[in-house]
From TrEMBL, chain A:
Enzyme Commission code: 1.8.99.2
Molecular-function GO terms, alphabetical: 4 iron, 4 sulfur cluster binding; adenylyl-sulfate reductase activity; metal ion binding
Top enzyme class: oxidoreductase
Family annotation (InterPro entries): 4Fe4S_Fe-S-bd, 4Fe4S_Fe_S_CS, PSI_iron-sulfur_center
Entry keyword set: 4Fe-4S, Iron, Iron-sulfur, Metal-binding, Oxidoreductase
Domain spans labelled 4Fe-4S ferredoxin-type: 10-42, 44-73
Cellular component GO terms, alphabetical: cytoplasm
Designated name of the protein: Adenylylsulfate reductase beta-subunit
PANTHER family tied to this protein: BSR3197 PROTEIN (PTHR24960:SF71), PHOTOSYSTEM I IRON-SULFUR CENTER-RELATED (PTHR24960)
C-alpha cells in the first residue's frame, strides 16, 4: 500500500535564538520519554519531529536556556 | 560470542525498564553484591523516564507505624479487590513500606513533615491513614539517577526490549532488543532478568483521540506484558482493567489524594458528593461511571468552596509536580478553580497493578513462573502497588535475582530463536510501503474502546476479538521509514498482544467483579462459587493463548466483619441502580 | 590542568577550559552522566567559573552529586552574587543530611547577614538536628526577614528541646508574619499541655485563619483537655475551615461536653463540617451523640452517611 504524508501541528516549540544545540547541548532530546525531539538538520537546533507528545515537560524544565515551550496538543486543547 | 555479526553482551543481572521499580532493583542488586555486573536497559532515558518523570504528588499507600498496621492494610486492599489477592505479596509490601520510606528519605527524597520533623500523614477517609504528601517531590528521578551512578550500574538508554531469551531447560537467559535511534539490535545474555516496564497504557484510546494523551506514560505500552507472555510466564487477572478518574480531555489524575485532605471533592453537576464506596476500587469507578451517564452528571472536581490560600497551595502542587502542564490546560479553557468546578471523566482502559490488580503473575519474592525472571511495579500482579510498591518490589526483585544468580550456571542461548527475532525486528524497515504503525495502532486501540471497554458485553467482546485478530493478520505489512517508526512498529505488536489478552481474559471470567473494571452486563453478579480464583493467561504447549484458574493462597489476615459491612454497602447501591 | 583516567571525564575537563562559555556550560551538563567520583572536582571548579551562566548550570547540577563531597564549595556558593546559584546551593545543602556538614554550616551562619543565604543555611541545618544550631536559631527568631524567622522556627521545632518553648510561644503569639506564627504554632506539639496549653488557647483567636486551624490541630495532637471550652467557641468561628479543625480536635479530646455543639455542626450547611462533626461524634462514641448520628444516616451527602454508619458501629461497640 502506498503511503501519503500528512501534516499535523505539534505542541512543542523551540526558540531557535535561545537554543544552544550548536554548542553541543542535547538535553531536551535526551530526556524526552517518547524520543520525539531531534536536531533539525537544516538549522542545527532542536525541534519536534513527531507529533507524539505526553506534554509531560521534562524537555522544558531541563532546557538550560528556557528555549522550549510545551503547549497542550491541539486535539485536547 | 556473536550472532549474525552482533556481539552478545554479558551481564549477571539485567533490569529492563528504568522508571521507578527498575532503578531500585538495579541499585539493590549492586548493594547486595557490588561484584555483580548489573545492567539497566531503558527504552527512553533513565533520567526522566516512566510514570514519575516529573515527580509525584505523594504516597497513596504508605503504611507508617502509628497511623496504620500492615494487617489493616492487607485487609483493606483485600476488600477493595473483592478478595482476589495474593495476601503474602501484599504483606511483604506492607511490612517493607516504612523502611523504604526511611531509605528514600535518607537518600534525599522530600516527604512532607510537620514542624517538628515527623511525617505529616493525611487521612483521606476514615478507614486508615495512608497518604503521605510530597509537595516537593520533583527530585525523585534525580536521586535515583545519582544512586545508579554511585553504585556503578551500567545503563543502556534508548534500547527497547522486544523478546526475552530462555535456556533449553526453561530458565531465563537474557533478552533481545533494538536501539530506538539507530535500529541496531542488541542481544544480552543474563543470568537473571528483572522486568519493570510499567503499565500497558496504550491499550484503550483517550476520548480526545490523541494516541499519546494516555493516563500512563505512553512509553509504557505493554511490551513487558507481551514479552512475559511470549516467554511462557503466567499473567493474572488481566480482565481487571485499569480505569481511572481524570480531568476531561486532560490526563491529569483526579487528585483526590491531593485535594481531599484540603477539603476538595468529586461532585456531580449539582456540586454534591455522590461516591458511596470507601475504597479506591472498581466499585468506586462504577459509581463514577454511573454518575457520568446519569441525569445529575457529568462529574466534577469541586474546589470553589475553598479559601484562597488553600487554592494557591493546591495550584502549587498540581501545577508543578506530576503533570505540570495542567495549569496551561486550564488556562486554555479559562478554568479557574476559584470560580467553577472542573469537568472530569474516566480514562481509557489499560493493565496496571499500580492502581488495580492485573499483570504478570508474581509471588511475594517477585518471582514469575519462569525461573530467573522477576517482575516489579505496574506490570506485576501485586494489587494497588502505586509508587511505593514499585520501589518495594524493585528492592525485593533485586534481592531475589542476586540470590538466584548465585547458583546459576552460564545460560545457553537459542540461536535459532534469536535469528527469527532479528528478522521480526528488521522486517518493517525493509518494506518501502505498507501500513504505518500509527494507523495500525489507532485501529487496534479504537477496537479496544468500541468492544472491550466496560460495561462488557459477551457478543461485543467476541466481535472485538475477531477484529483484533484480523489486525494481527496485517502485521506482515507493517512498515517503518526510520528507526523511530520502527520503535512504534515494535510497540504496536505488543499492543495487539495486549488487546488480544484483554479480550480473552475478559471473556474467560463469566461473572462481574471489581466494579467497573470487569462489569459484564450479561453476567451481572459476583460468583464466588465459580470464580474465587485468580484467572491465568498463558501460552500453552501449542503456542496458543490459554486461560485457567489459580487458587487463592490462604489469607494471612482474615476479613472478619468488615467484609460484611462492605457487602451491605454494595447491596444498598445495587438497589438504586 | 589535571588529567583524568576516565576518557569521558577527561573530555569534559578539556571542554571546561574552552574560551567559549557556551561550551563550558554544556560541559557542565555532561558531568551529570559521569559515574566517576572525581567529577565532583570539576563541578566545584565550574561553581567558580567567571561566567554567570556556567556557575548557574553548575549550581543546577550540584544536587546530582553527593553534597558531602562539596559542602565547602556549596557554602561558598551561598554568597555568590547570582540568586540562582545561591538558591541551588541552599537546596543542595538542605539535602546533605550529613552530620559532618553541621560545623561548616554553623560557621557560615555566624558570618552571614543576607536573608536569603541565612534561611538557606537554616534549612540545611534543620534535618541535622545538631544541638549547636539551637543558639543561633533562637537568635534568628528576632531577624527582620520573615523567611529567616520561618526557618529558625523549623530548626527549633525539629530540635524538640523543652527549654526553647518560651521562645516558640512568644513567636507563635507575637510574630508579625502569619506564616511564621502558623509554623511556630505547629511546632508546639512536642511540648506538654501544661507548658503551651494557655498559648494555644489564645491562638485559637489569632487574626489569621490558618493560625487558628493550626492551633486547633496542635491542641488535638497534645490532647489538651482544658481547651474544650475554647474549642467549643471555635466551632462558631466565622470560617468553616477553622470550625472543621476545632471539631476534629474535640473528637480527639473525646469530650462529651462538646456533644451538643458537635450536634449543631452536624447540621451545618457545609458538608465538610458535617463530616467532621459526625466523625468526632463517632470517635467520642457516647450515647448522647447517637441521635445526631442517626439523623446523619439520611444525610444528602454520601460521605456524611458513610461516616454515620461507621459512627454507629463505634457507638454500638461502646454500648
Ligand atoms: C499520572 C500518574 C500519577 C500517579 N500518581 C501517583 C501518586 O500520586 N502516588 C503514587 O503512589 N503513585 C502514583 N502513580 C503510580 C506510580 O507512579 C506507579 O505505580 C509507579 O511509578 C510505577 O513504576 P514502574 O517502575 O512500574 O513503571 P514506570 O516508572 O513507568 O517505569 C517503566 C519504565 O519502563 C520503560 N520501558 C517500557 N517498555 C520498555 C521496553 N520494551 N524496553 C525497555 N524499557 C521499557 C519505560 O520507558 C519506563 O521508564 C501515578 C501514576 C501516573 C501515571
Ligand atoms: S535543551 Fe534547550 S538548548 Fe538544549 S538542545 Fe534542547 S532546546 Fe536547545
Ligand atoms: S513534553 Fe514530554 S513527551 Fe513532549 S516533547 Fe517534551 S519531554 Fe517529550
Amino acid at each position: 500500500m502506498p503511503i501519503a504524508n500528512h501534516h499535523s501541528s505539534v505542541p512543542v516549540i523551540v526558540d531557535e535564538d535561545k537554543c544552544i544545540a550548536d554548542k553541543g547541548c542535547t538535553v531536551c532530546i535526551d530526556v524526552c520519554p517518547l524520543d520525539v525531539l531531534w536536531i533539525n538538520e537544516e538549522t542545527g537546533k532542536a525541534h519536534m519531529k513527531y507529533d507524539e507528545c505526553w506534554y509531560c515537560m521534562p524537555c522544558e524544565a531541563d532546557c538550560p536556556t528556557d528555549a522550549v515551550t510545551v503547549n497542550i496538543p491541539y486535539l485536547l486543547r | 560470542m556473536k550472532i549474525n555479526d552482533i556481539p552478545v553482551i554479558e551481564t549477571d543481572v539485567l533490569v529492563i525498564g528504568g522508571g521507578t521499580a527498575g532503578p531500585m532493583a538495579a541499585v539493590t542488586a549492586k548493594e547486595q553484591d557490588p561484584g555483580l555486573n548489573v545492567m539497566l536497559l531503558e527504552k527512553a532515558n533513565v533520567k526522566r523516564s516512566g510514570a514519575i518523570s516529573m515527580g509525584m504528588d505523594g504516597l497513596n499507600n504508605a503504611v507508617v507505624p502509628g497511623h496504620a498496621t500492615p494487617e489493616q492494610y492487607v485487609k483493606e486492599i483485600t476488600i477493595a479487590n473483592d478478595g482476589i489477592v495474593h495476601q503474602p505479596a501484599l504483606m511483604a509490601y506492607a511490612t517493607r513500606s516504612f523502611p523504604m520510606i526511611e531509605k528514600l528519605d535518607s537518600w534525599g527524597v522530600h516527604f512532607q513533615k510537620d514542624e517538628t520533623g515527623d511525617y505529616d500523614m493525611k487521612k483521606v477517609h476514615h478507614l486508615g491513614t495512608y497518604v503521605l504528601p510530597m509537595p516537593e517531590g520533583h527530585n525523585v528521578k534525580k536521586i535515583l539517577y545519582r544512586r545508579l551512578r554511585r553504585n556503578r550500574v551500567q545503563i543502556e538508554n534508548r534500547y527497547t526490549a522486544t523478546r526475552l531469551l530462555k535456556d533449553p531447560d526453561g530458565k531465563i537467559a537474557g533478552m533481545i532488543g533494538v536501539n530506538t535511534r539507530t535500529a541496531e539490535p542488541i542481544i544480552i545474555r543474563a543470568k537473571a532478568v528483572i522486568m519493570a516496564t510499567g503499565a500497558a497504557g496504550r491499550l484503550g484510546l483517550p476520548t480526545s483521540g490523541y494516541l499519546f494523551g494516555t493516563y500512563e506514560n505512553p512509553a509504557n505500552n505493554g511490551d513487558g506484558h507481551a514479552m512475559a507472555y511470549h516467554a511462557g510466564a503466567d499473567l493474572a487477572n488481566l480482565e481487571c482493567f485499569q480505569v481511572n478518574p481524570l480531568l476531561k480531555d486532560y490526563n491529569g489524575p483526579a487528585c483526590a489524594y491531593v485535594t481531599g485532605p484540603l477539603g476538595g471533592f468529586t461532585a456531580n453537576a449539582f456540586g454534591e458528593r455522590f461516591i458511596e464506596c470507601d475504597y479506591w476500587s472498581g466499585q468506586m469507578m462504577l459509581e463514577f461511571f454511573k454518575e457520568l451517564e446519569s441525569g445529575t452528571g457529568p462529574v466534577f472536581l469541586k474546589l470553589d468552596h475553598l479559601a484562597e490560600e488553600t487554592i494557591q497551595e493546591i495550584e502549587t502542587v498540581l501545577h508543578t509536580n506530576e503533570r505540570p502542564t495542567r495549569g496551561r490546560f486550564h488556562e486554555g479553557r479559562d478554568v479557574n478553580y476559584r470560580q467553577r468546578m472542573v469537568e472530569m471523566h474516566i480514562s481509557e482502559v489499560g493493565f496496571c497493578s499500580g492502581h488495580s490488580a492485573s499483570g504478570v503473575w508474581t509471588d511475594e519474592t517477585g518471582a514469575t513462573t519462569v525461573p530467573g525472571l522477576y517482575c516489579a511495579g505496574d506490570m506485576a500482579s501485586v494489587a494497588h502497588n502505586y509508587m511505593l510498591g514499585a520501589f518495594v518490589y524493585g528492592q525485593i526483585c533485586g534481592e531475589s535475582a542476586v540470590e538466584f544468580v548465585k547458583s546459576r550456571s552460564e545460560p545457553e542461548l537459542d540461536e535459532d530463536f534469536i535469528i527469527r527475532e532479528l528478522e521480526r525486528i528488521q522486517a518493517p524497515m525493509k518494506r518501502a510501503d505498507g501500513i504505518p504503525p500509527e494507523q495500525m495502532e489507532y485501529k487496534v486501540r479504537r477496537l479496544v474502546n468500541d468492544y472491550l471497554q466496560p460495561p462488557k458485553v459477551t457478543k461485543k467482546m467476541e466481535i472485538g476479538l475477531e477484529r483484533i485478530l484480523a489486525v494481527r493478520e496485517d502485521v506482515p505489512q507493517l512498515c517503518a521509514r526510520d528507526p523511530h517508526e520502527l520503535l512504534r512498529a515494535m510497540e504496536v505488536q505488543s499492543i495487539i498482544d495486549c488487546a488480544e489478552m484483554a479480550a480473552r481474559a475478559s471473556l474467560y471470567r463469566t461473572e462481574s467483579r471489581w466494579g467497573l473494571y470487569h462489569y459484564r452486563v450479561d453476567f451481572p453478579d459476583q460468583d464466588d462459587g465459580e470464580w474465587f480464583y485468580h484467572s491465568r493467561l498463558f501460552k500453552d504447549e501449542d503456542g496458543q493463548m490459554a486461560s485457567g484458574k489459580r487458587p487463592i493462597a490462604d489469607y494471612l489476615v482474615s476479613l472478619g466483619e468488615e467484609k460484611d459491612a462492605y457487602r451491605k454497602m454494595r447491596v444498598q447501591k445495587a438497589a438504586n441502580e | 590542568m589535571k588529567t583524568y583516567d576516565d576518557p569521558e571525564l577527561q573530555a569534559i575537563a578539556v571542554k571546561l577550559t574552552s574560551e567559549d562559555p557556551g561550551i563550558r556550560r554544556v560541559a557542565v551538563m555532561d558531568l551529570v552522566d559521569s559515574g566517576e567520583p572525581e567529577a565532583v572536582e570539576l563541578v566545584i571548579q565550574a561553581l567558580n567559573d567567571p561566567d554567570t551562566n556556567v556557575r548557574q548550570e553548575a549550581a543546577k547540577v550540584v544536587d546530582e552529586f553527593e553534597a558531602a563531597d562539596m559542602a565547602d564549595a556549596l557554602i561558598a556558593a551561598l554568597s555568590d552574587n547570582d540568586e540562582v546559584v545561591r538558591n541551588s546551593a541552599a537546596h543542595a545543602l538542605a539535602d546533605l543530611k550529613d552530620p559532618a556538614a553541621a560545623a561548616p554550616l554553623l560557621e557560615a551562619l555566624e558570618s552571614s547577614t543576607d536573608g536569603f543565604v541565612v534561611s538557606g543555611i537554616l534549612r540545611a541545618l534543620k534535618p541535622l538536628r545538631n544541638p549547636g544550631s539551637q543558639r543561633p536559631a533562637l537568635k534568628r527568631l528576632g531577624d527582620e526577614d520573615p523567611r529567616v524567622r520561618r526557618e529558625a522556627v523549623a530548626v527549633i521545632g525539629w530540635l524538640k528541646q523543652p527549654e526553647n518553648l518560651p521562645a516558640l510561644v512568644e513567636t507563635a503569639q507575637h510574630d508579625k508574619d502569619p506564616e511564621v506564627r502558623r509554623a511556630a504554632t505547629g511546632a508546639l506539639v512536642y511540648a506538654s499541655p501544661q507548658q503551651v496549653g494557655q498559648a494555644l488557647i489564645a491562638l485559637l483567636k489569632d487574626e489569621h485563619w490558618q493560625v487558628r486551624c493550626e492551633a486547633a490541630n496542635s491542641i488535638g495532637k497534645l490532647d489538651h483537655q482544658e481547651a474544650v471550652q475554647a474549642l467549643m467557641e471555635s466551632t462558631r468561628d466565622e470560617l468553616w475551615q477553622v470550625r472543621e479543625k476545632a471539631v476534629d480536635a474535640l473528637g480527639k479530646l473525646g469530650s462529651t461536653d462538646a456533644i451538643p455543639v458537635l450536634g449543631e455542626c452536624s447540621k451545618d450547611a457545609m458538608s465538610n463540617l458535617r463530616k467532621a462533626a459526625i466523625g468526632a461524634l463517632g470517635t467520642i462514641a457516647h450515647s448522647d451523640g447517637r441521635p445526631f448520628v442517626v439523623t446523619a444516616l439520611d444525610d444528602p451527602d454520601p460521605d456524611v452517611r458513610k461516616l454515620a454508619r461507621w459512627a454507629i458501629s463505634k457507638l454500638d461497640a461502646a454500648a
